[in-house]
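TASK: fixed-backbone design
INPUT:
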């Protein structure tokens, strides 16, 4: 995408190791570094908008169950203190 394509020119500072990774990735995908950066940004934004998949939901449930189990093993006084702290944060 050049200036004539309606794109904008952007100066960007990258850490050298990140630049090297982008260069390698662009060569592997037979794209210019500019096209590689655009593709990666687009993929990142698309993935961010996708709803969680079932595997992620199961992982979240597993984590919540572990936290709940640990909470239930606490003494009642400890549970009350944690509940108060959470209440103050909300």
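OUTPUT:
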């Amino acid at each position: 995408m050049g200036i004539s394509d309606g794109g904008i020119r952007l100066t960007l500072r990258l850490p050298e190791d990140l630049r090297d990774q982008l260069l390698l990735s662009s060569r592997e995908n037979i794209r210019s570094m500019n096209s590689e950066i655009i593709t990666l940004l687009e993929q990142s934004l698309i993935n961010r908008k996708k709803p969680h998949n079932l595997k992620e939901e199961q992982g979240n449930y597993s984590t919540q169950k572990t936290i709940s189990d640990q909470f239930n093993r606490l003494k009642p006084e400890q549970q009350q203190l944690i509940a108060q702290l959470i209440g103050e944060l909300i």
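COMMENT: The helical segments are 16-28, 33-49, 54-72, 76-89.
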